[in-house]
Design goal:
Layout (H helix, E strand, L loop, with lengths): L2 H14 L9 H7 L6 H5 L2 H6 L9 H16 L1
């Protein structure tokens, strides 16, 4: 429940500093919530976010490969 508020504060801070999320440190995260651990740095990586979209039609690399294979198969018919 609190995550959107925490993320919002972090994003606003980074935007104000004209920085993206790529350089966020654990100290940056903990300024917004002391409960955040080092693993949170891996969780906010864009590639991790994309890979987590694993439902059918999602953007996870495996789902994209599957969709591409389906399209190729349909075009060969």
């Amino acid at each position: 429940r609190e995550a959107p508020e925490i993320v919002g504060r972090l994003v606003r801070e980074r935007i104000a500093a004209t920085k993206d999320l790529g350089g966020v440190t654990l100290d940056d995260l903990r300024r917004h919530d002391k409960r955040l651990e080092a693993s949170a740095l891996a969780e906010i990586r864009p590639e991790r976010s994309v890979a987590s979209r694993a439902s059918p039609g999602g953007t996870a690399p495996d789902r994209v490969r599957e969709a591409r294979a389906e399209v190729r198969a349909a075009l060969k018919r």
